[in-house]
Amino acid sequence: MLISTIGKLAFRRVLEFLGRGLGEPSLHKEGSPNFTALNANWYQKTRLNERRTGMPLKNFGSILNFAAELEAADSDFYKAAAANPASAQNKAVLEELAAEKKKNEKLMLRACRESVCEMILEPIVDFTREPFLSGREGTQTMSWKQLRQKALDLEGKALEFYTEAAEKIQALPEVSRALTRTATRRAADKQRLEQLPQE
Question: Considering the chain, what percentage of its residues have pLDDT values greater than 90?
């Protein structure tokens, strides 16, 4: 019991160290089942601080948190798209995509927690958020053609992000493989969208 308690306290100190100096409020509500009180403060702060356009993804933590943020935002997009009357004939597909992105978010958060020690030791260079950011405003009022194109754009940017991120995190083979698998799923989703009618 004593060892378990000491271990938990040490883990908490690591999380506090990673989040030190990042003091902005959270943009999204943390509703993931994998989200715990232990990493709440660190996750909230790093996720928001790295959100700014052009902000560098400078360590494993920032990359994985951005991945989780990307999946959460895309899940919200697909939910809103599925609720749009213009997508009635493709509603089931959009709902499946929304659920898949939520699953991806959980996977990224788990990878983030499991790799917390390595995040401190391995800096990342020449990698920023800017190329992978995209607006999702007006989803509920778009035509089906606009929704389909926006979804393709989101999948394309996500695929590029995961492909490049997997290369940047080769020092953590398990995490790199997880990112590569997510890239593969994104590529499959993009292909699935391409097969849907344009009008």
Answer: 47
